[in-house]
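Field notebook, page 439. I keep forgetting to write these up properly, so this time I am using the form the group agreed on. The chain and the ligand, iron/sulfur cluster, are recorded exactly as supplied. Prediction of the bound pose follows.
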Amino acid sequence: MTEDAPKKLFIKTYGCQMNVYDSERMAEALGAKGYVTTEVAEEADMVLLNTCHIREKAAEKVYSDLGRLRPLKQAKPDLKIGVAGCVAQAEGEEILRRMPLVDLVVGPQSYHRLPEMVEAKGKVIDTDFPEEDKFDHLPERKALRGPTAFLTVQEGCDKFCAFCVVPYTRGAEVSRPVPRLLAEARDLVSRGVREITLLGQNVNGYHGEGEGGAWGLGRLIREMAGIEGLERLRYTTSHPNDMDDDLIAAHGEVPQLMPYLHLPVQSGSDRILKAMNRKHTAEEYLRLIERIRAARPDILLSSDFIVAFPGETDRDFEDTMDLIREVRFGAAFSFKYSARPGTPAAEKPELPAELADARLHALQALITEQQHAAQKAMVGRQVGVLYEKAGRLPGQMVGKSDHLHAVHVQDPTAKVGELVQVRIVEAGPNSLRGERLQP
Ligand code: 5AD
Ligand code: SF4
């Protein structure tokens, strides 16, 4: 039953964009039970940590954050504390054992059951992979929205890269059916959204049921581009081996599909790629990039890299640096290898921490150089900018360019949600400055 005074829900989201989407949907599910979200943990009736298990640091952060909630729980014994997401999935009851202040543990495939779980007495735990699609059991989204939104189209992963927990925590690849996604996209647009980022752990492996059989991501994107009022589409995150011809062609043919692609390669060494079970070579990745650039010459590329994977030699690392020099990325995320329990790579001896630090440092320096070069290259160019919020200076708006750069524009009469044409006039270290072109 919904009570008169709204209860307050504080959600902290760790890790990836899928978790950002999941947190939004959990907030909506709990909204049906009378919860409204708050930014202030101290005033919450429920604190939910939506966790990430991908690297040890991310997972351990959850335990230290839970420790920090102790005084709050002591002062407010009715406070409910929940752990959701991939740490919940991977560690289950261990969380209740290690942290008795936790009331509920819910895995990423079960959060549609949250509304029942919050009403249960005592401790509850649900880390099933249920048959039903959780998205079908969530309440409809009604509130007006900002101009950008995520939409999960695919979950899980069958790739089993040797370092990665995702296939274990998120389970096998599942694609949501086309009609549901189109309905959800239309609904988002009707509530003010102008840019949708399609999400999946292996989003370009999408193969959801549509008219006439299974559709690939390229076809889904072409269909979504037909939704009136939907100005921009993006997708993340992809595996090189799932970039099919139709999707590559879509980059050249669908104006709504923005010229930015996150395509993780992890390493530039064939030996390490093989040990990682990535199932492609550095050369194959480079040829793929050529084809993508042929379809969309101004596309900005980003990637993920892992340094100091077990067995990585100086030569292997240099191969990664060479690949980066050859591709010229506009952005990248890079990580020191972190051994994850239950993954094949965790059986192998780790490299010394100082070596990992030094390689990460060198790789990040190169990426930063390329990122700045890509930002400088935007100066003088005309790009679209979708305003997402007001800037810190009076009359200033902040939005994202087509290439996903943050852009500041002096535009005192503009509103959030406007998509405007801008000339880039300056490149700072973290953002660009643009001048609006009339009208
Ligand atoms: N150690 C370090 N980085 C990892 N990633 C995934 N698993 C690990 C791990 N065990 C990185 C990969 C992936 C990104 C989401 O996180 O680069 O693409
Ligand atoms: Fe993890 Fe590899 Fe699947 Fe990406 S493709 S989620 S890195 S197993």
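OBSERVATIONS:
- The two ends are 51 Å apart (CA to CA).
- The first helix runs from residue 17 to 31.
FOLLOW-UP: compare against the apo run.
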